Hints:
Blueprint lengths: L4 H13 L8 H23 L13 H19 L3 H14 L12
Amino acid sequence: MEKSLADIQREVDAYISQFKEGYFSPLSMLARMSEEVGELAREVNHQFGEKPKKADEADNSIELELGDILFITVCFANSLGIDLTEAHNRVMHKFNTRDAGRWTLKNTD
């Protein structure tokens, strides 16, 4: 089932709302996001870099690490009342205007 960003934000909020602790503070979420990005970097390095996994290392994946980053990003946005669909639209507008001529377009013949 395909979900919109709004669906994902509501799903994460419903999950977090069942706990008394609620969302972490912005500073704690930023630290958690940094940890998750580090875990993604480790997985990318294992798969595409020169550092193979040790035999006893956990079997994580780039997909799972990106999922963790998405989850904490949604938590961060929800805690600050940010609509990620609107944030995405604003970023795409910026890229489509400010960076419109920055990259070489593929030949569309």
